[in-house]
Amino acid sequence: MSEDILGKALLDYHNLKYTEDIITISSLDEEDRLPLPYMFRSFEQMPLLEQIALEHCKGMVLDVGCGAGNHSLYLQNKGYEVTGLDASPGAVSVCRQRGVLKTIHADFLSLDGQQFDTLLLLMNGIGITGKLKKLDTYLNQMKRLLRPNGQVLLDSSNILYMYESDEEDGGYWIPQNVDYYGEVTFTMRYKNEVSEPFDWLYVDFNTLKRAATFNGLHCDMVKQGENDDYLARLTFL
Q1: Where does the Methyltransferase domain start and stop, copy by copy (predicted)?
Q2: 0.85 surpassed by pTM
């Protein structure tokens, strides 16, 4: 097993050593390719939900799971004070080399002593929660990091469609070993190295809204996507 697969791949691409993409293998028995050029996309190349989220940012911004720094750089160039946060040391290194002025290499739950006007969690950034039962913990951390009039902007997807049955009567087949159908386990493979398995959460909007309300947050749908995805905004009640 290898650590920081994502960081190694991002550093390779940034240093002009791009020869292959990251392969992701999920508990849904699916293998997919994560193209490294996509991780360095411009604003014009971003999906509509990401573009809308960036246009809704305000004040001091924390870019959670900043990756290669695309969102941070766009906002920084627009005059925002942005901090890029990532648990991957390689990703943080790439952000710094690309010109992101403020970066933090840390786990989201460990962050303390700072507050922001906008928390930005894009590319299904809420996925870091891993399991639905941990969502309350992450929402309360968001509350601690938000200023009184602050906001959280996040996108996610309802992946129930992936469990549609092939039977004529329709319905869904959901594994018994998960508490919620949006809980997925991934591993990454890159240049013959394989990551440790990690949990990732896809949360449907209604479930997110119920959890937000329970934890003292208001949840609005900013934009519904075309592929069971959405952009949501969380604020204090």
Answers
A1: 61-150
A2: yes
The candidate with the shortest Cα–Cα distance to 234, out of 200, 196, 203, 193, is 203
Give pLDDT, residue 203.
98
Within-domain flag for 67: yes
Q: Count CB-CB contacts under 10 A for residue 233.
A: 18
Is residue 218 in some structural domain?
A: yes
Q: What is the DSSP letter of 197?
A: P
Beta strands in 20-137 (DSSP E): 22-26, 31-34, 61-64, 82-86, 102-105, 116-121
| Domain presence at residue 132 | yes
β-strand 102-105 against 146-157: which pairing, if any?
A: unpaired
**Which CATH number does the domain housing residue 135 bear?**
3.40.50.150
The tokens 């991002």 sit on which residue? 10
How many domains does the chain divide into?
1
List CB contacts of 84: < 8 A, sequence separation 6 or more.
63, 66, 69, 72, 92, 95, 100, 102, 103, 104
CA terminus-to-terminus distance, the chain: 44
Q: Strands 193-194 and 183-190, how do they pair?
A: antiparallel
> Residue 163 domain-assigned?
no
